[in-house]
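Hi team,

Below is the intake form for Vitamin B12-binding protein from Roseinatronobacter ekhonensis. Please confirm the fields before the structure is written into the shared record.

FORM ID: S-0412
PROTEIN: Vitamin B12-binding protein
ORGANISM: Roseinatronobacter ekhonensis
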Amino acid sequence: MAPLTGRSTLACRRASRALAAALAFWAGAAVAEPPERVASINLCTDQLAMMLAEPEQLVSISRISHDPNVSVMLKEALKYPINHGQAEEVFRLNPDLVLAGQFTSSYTVGLLRRLGVEVAQLPIVNSLDQIPDAIREVGRLLGRGAQAETLAAQFSADLAALRASPDSRPRAALHYANNYTSGDKSLANDILTAAGFANIALEAGLSGGGTLPMERLVMLMPDLIISGQQYPGASRSEAVLTHPAMNALRDRHAGSALSDAEWVCGTPAVLRAITRLQEAGE
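The structure came back. Fields below:
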């Protein structure tokens, strides 16, 4: 008998799962089997999958999760093989399910689906209140609903205990490369608010993400400046982070803090970001 190819193996496994599901249906319990092999090609789905997957269920995560600058679960991530988000590469992993992000390459997602691979795209998390829903959705996809419910409930309880309701809120500025900032309807703004700060981007009328000219930021005189972490190597876009005007503002008036990997994704890791901000404001 000729050896099975990767595509044949995948087809056989799917046929077996389909048969098992059919038998369960006729037995009166139409419950789909959890996927045996899951690949994630997005940093944020990597993290939720690592939190929830059964041992050996998650077979690959995105290469970005091995980057210490953005990976909040680096130690855990180093246990998993990485992929580069290429359809051909991911297909050879014989996954039953691929977890992707809302803005993952449409070419990659489309090709995988044409090859018969199930791809679940999770939306961007834009608020703290959306995090439990994201946890539950990944749990549902992995067949780990009970574990997801426990994690979601714990996150909600921890967040409620952390949320600050001060009489007056210190004013904070989010200042990233190219003078980018986050306004309302963003996860970063929710993190600021939960930590007890007011986001000066709202004073400037910004919604979502956008640029806040450095001159305007200096005139607004925030109490705290939260800058993005600088990456190794020179970048002209990051020069604004250490501009003399910004350094002078920090020296004269504002404190400073760094936003790091804990701010990137809508996962329970944002609780640490809130705690760090509260400590910076003390």
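SUMMARY LINE: The CA atoms of residues 20 and 33 lie 8 Å apart.

Thanks, M.
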